[in-house]
Amino acid sequence: MFSTEKDPTESAPLPLLRVRWLGTMEYREAWELQKSLAAKRLQDEIPDTLLLLEHPPTFTLGRNAKPSDILVDAETLSREGIEVVQSDRGGDVTYHGPGQLVGYPIVNLQRSPHSPNLHTYFRLLEETLICSLAHFGVEGNRFKGYTGVWVGMNTQPFAPEKIAAMGIRVSRWVTQHGFALNVSPNLSHFEMIIPCDIREYGVTSLQKVTSREIAVESVMPVVIEEFSRVFGMEVES
Q: Which residues are tagged catalytic?
């Protein structure tokens, strides 16, 4: 006769992570999708979800951003095909565009295997990207006093550059927005803004740091692998 009692040594199954690759999607459309999925996640209608995508050229203004953070006029924006969107995420102004892998985790932090606090969540996002960069031979670092992931922290002279930005919104412990990893974007577009209100340091990309062509699609599976590992989740098959 078989016992139906659970073996106390048997580990609990990992929480599921649903991953969706959206291709290129307008910022406002992706924002509406996030809000819809966040409402479903709050009601446990869907598992934790990671949206991965690229945006057309867009400047997004976070809650702390000022119009003066955009350094070019409307005519230049129109000529470059850059849309400006006021967002409900935290932070200042940033750029999204082709060649940038954007990740929007829709995660219920109260259901997370980690402690449900924003500091831990930010550190886990950073760890995901730092470990992802290591797959390409790039040393990513945290920079005290700043969010995101940086490279060039150990160079002489000291010349840190930001390779990944982060900005989130959390409502009733469900996350929206997330991270933007510069794989091969048009870096000249960052010169049109004061990115993340940082004047003294520059912005770079994985392609620039490695001096080789790298496609967003080749980085995506690495980020999925590291996100699921760092957050302690199992990717839904």
A: 196
